[in-house]
Amino acid sequence: MKTKNNIITIAAAVLVLVGVSSCTKELDIEPPANRQLVLNGEPLAGTRAFVNFAYTRFFLDNNNDQPVPGAEVTLVANGVRYSSDSVSKCNYFFPYTIQEDDSLAVEVSLPDGRTVNAETWVPFQPVVEDFTVQFRRTLIFNILDARFKLSDHANVNEIYSIAINVRDSGRKYNEWKGTYDTVDTVRTSYFCLPNNPEITSDSVTPYLPIVGHPYMLYGSRIMFLDRRIAGRSNYEVALMIPLFRDTTERAPFKHEYTVEVHSFSAERFRYILSVSSQGGATSFFAEQGSTYGNVDGALGVFAGGAGQKFKFATDTIVPERYRTTTMPDVKPAVLDGPITPVLNTQNGQWGMKNNAVK
Predict the structure, then answer these.
(1) Cα–Cα distance between 32 and 27 in angstroms, integer?
(2) 165-224 per-position pLDDT tens digit
(3) b/e per residue 136-147 (b: at least 16 CB within 10 A)
(4) What is the CA radius of gyration of the chain?
(5) Highest CATH level, class, for 37-121
(6) Which single residue of 76, 157, 283, 344 has CA 20 to 30 Å from 117?
(7) CA distance 302 to 239
């Protein structure tokens, strides 16, 4: 019986080896013969005009754009034609600076006679003034109270967007290694609008309503129409940004916030809305939706916009105790009181400076 069992064991091992060896066969994967054309461009007021025109990428292309040989790309701004004066990595640049209220079009001619066309309009720059930030403690969590005044353009249907990005930089405790790692990452920040029902009631982006407060929405971006604030001046917008304590952070740790206030063209609005509606697309079982595009003869979107960015930084409110002593003690940074605005003379944008006690 023992000999029989040994024979069965050896036979099973041989079958496993045969099966594994059959899985090591090399496969030749060739890129698709007919790639699709893609045209993307986001002309922003005050920036140099350029578009990206390329073939669709194959997953073995190492994330590099695939150029389209012989393409002639032309920008038409308010009826005036501009030929591309430089090309870099499939980005076609034009000798023109985007202006508010521009009517823009892109025309592409290919050697085989095919053409690609797209049009958009550049909205007016949002009028944002008196940007301030205040640190506040609450019973639930600490918050940053950011406020600014928004003046709407009369007789213009505006589509606004507010979003917040955060750059985290410093040292965090690695539980696997038992040491501190240096991190430098960018993420979106959630926020809510507790005092602006005129905005939240006209929100057109998927948001999470807070229980008991139907107009107090919570998310990382809000797009809204100006129907309830049309033509109003100095309308105060209040953003409540929660600060969640991370016990793995070690002083000094820095969080750099960027609040972006944009005006979007209809094309840009439809594109972001189509992407936002696919928020669950990362799930294997999520239903895939269609992404908006306005390019004839190719994939992609050509959509105008205008906006301002306001930046400020905070030091982490450091926990009193740490689970390791591998690093020397650093006096915790305590952020309290107002954050004073500082004008950046290089780009004319407002920055922020902490009144932190260290």
Answers:
(1) 15
(2) 988 888 887 878 888 888 899 988 888 887 888 887 767 665 544 444 444 455 678 888
(3) eeeeeebbbebe
(4) 27
(5) mainly beta
(6) 157
(7) 30
